[in-house]
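Researcher: Please translate sequence to structure tokens.
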Amino acid sequence: MSAKRGRPPIKPHIKQLIYAQALQYKNIPRFALAVDLKKLIEEMGEVSPTEETMMKLISESRNHPVSDLDSPWSLGCLAKYDIPPEALPIVIWIYEKRLREEEQHFTIREVLWIARLHKVIDDPIFLERFASAYALRDKIDWILGNSVYTRGLDIRLIRYIDKSTRAEFYEYPDSIHPLPTWGWEEEEELRMKLKGKGYTLK
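Model: Translation complete:
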């Protein structure tokens, strides 16, 4: 008589996807996000965890201790977090845009990434998108205790900087994502790094 086979363990990159979505869409209720994630994971051809399991993972990711870098940014933060003076106009432009859109989620971490990237991204809309993606990836790796690993994003950034391939970003603006592109070599490298660190989200 064969042993009863249960649901397979959750793959590390699926756990990381759940973690990232929970942080990125923190205002979406757990059950609604779990339903959306189940559909997304199945569309990727992967076995989805149960909604109950995903809700636990969503709670754990959202309840993780918060870094000071994830506090809301204001000009007063310049007293502690210095940024190059030449980056300040674009930071204020994006800050004003977020306030106008009543988007309160504008963090110190994002501002630091805007300051780091503003010299190589000339379109403020794409600067904001890239900085947000880098900031989220930075936050995920901080939570996991990993070195920040951004090769997937770096490749996208290099393609954006190259004017011959920039048009694809206007056609597919959602291609700027903090996680590696599924199937690329960096996904396997990240998976091995996570396994080596014994990374699991219960």
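Researcher: Any highlights?
Model: Confidence is low (pLDDT under 50) at residues 180-184, 194-202.
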